[in-house]
Amino acid sequence: MDIGIFSGVASSGGFSSIVADAAASADAGFDTYWLPQIVQQAEAMNIIGAAAQTVPNIRFGTSVVPTYPRHPMVMAEQAQTTSMLTGGRFTLGIGLSHKPVVEGMWGHSFDKPVRHAREYLEALMPLVRGEGVSFAGETLTARGQLTINAPESPVLLAALGPQMLQLAGERCGGTITWMTGAKTLSELTVPTISEAASNAGRETPQVVAGMPIWVTDDVDAARANAATTFLIYGQLPSYRAMLDREGLGGPEDLAIIGDEATCGARLDELAAAGVTQLAASEFASDPEGRARTRAFLASRL
Fold first, then answer.
1. Closest by alpha carbon to 120, among 108, 105, 137?
2. Which of 59, 162, 191, 255 is deepest in the core (most CB within 10 A)?
3. Element (H or E) spanning 227, and its range?
4. Is-contact 116 65, C-beta < 8 A?
5. Do the beta carbons of residue 157 and residue 121 sit within 8 Å?
6. C-alpha distances in angstroms, 245 versus 3, 139, 187, 230, 240?
7. What percent helix, strand, coil does the chain show, rounded to 5?
8. H-helix or E-strand spanning residue 258
9. Nearest to 209, CA basis, from 273, 267, 256, 279
């Protein structure tokens, strides 16, 4: 199981902080530096394209860019431009977002989200492969071809439920999960997406698992922090369903918290479940905790 860094500094630090953290991640040997596309914050692919100019030796990825506000042709243009700027070191992670955002903020209908994802991929995937597309569905139309000289960007679809996992396996290079534990990954995520990919004649899919982690001896304080920091993920229906499958009360129960031995055992569970890469979201609130967590993750490379 590879390990990448799932950055949170895009929301709290400036560009220089992102570059410094990405450079430190590259120097330590981490596989990928993931940036989230947070609503009402800086555009992740722009940041990645700029950061890659001075940060070599690491892949970059988005986790994840919402589909609804970007037409597939625009998404493909952005992705392939970012691939050009990174020298092919870019993975495009996309996802649906959530009904309160899609309908409440953007004014799009969230009706039949799986249909939306299927039609979106019908239009997107040929474009990132450098092919032309001529598609007219119920919700999307896309006709054209890109002329961007860049390596194809792998596309990962954020998928939690069976239908989305099957779609990711059939059409994409894999999936990115969040708030999904080892039991669910082992029993639902990995077998569903792997079977779909096999039936479609595709290669073994990537399964990137985003997980909060804090290596610490003060477990109670870290759990309290996680309960506050990740509160919304215990309320949004899609993530709530993942926590319920694990039999957990909230995100603080899923977060990887404890000393090195405890956290190591949790990483072993993820690897055994079939996760191909851990996207580690380091959420320690103090410099010592952040340094200890980063050192632990580096020791697992």
1. 137
2. 255
3. helix 219-229
4. no
5. yes
6. 25, 32, 10, 18, 9
7. 50, 20, 30
8. strand 256-258
9. 279
Q: With 0.90 as the threshold, say if the pTM is over it.
A: yes
Q: What are phi and psi of 192, to 5 degrees?
A: -70, -50
How does pLDDT run along the chain (301 residues), one tens digit per residue? 999 999 975 446 789 999 999 999 999 999 999 999 988 889 999 999 999 999 999 999 999 999 999 999 999 999 999 999 999 999 999 999 999 999 999 999 999 999 999 999 999 999 999 999 999 999 999 999 999 999 999 999 999 999 999 999 999 999 999 999 999 999 999 999 999 999 999 999 999 999 999 999 999 999 999 999 999 999 999 999 999 999 999 999 999 999 999 999 999 999 999 999 999 999 999 999 999 999 999 999 9
Residues, the chain, total?
301
Tokens 């779909």 found at: 196
53: left (phi over 0), alpha (psi -120 to 50) or beta: alpha
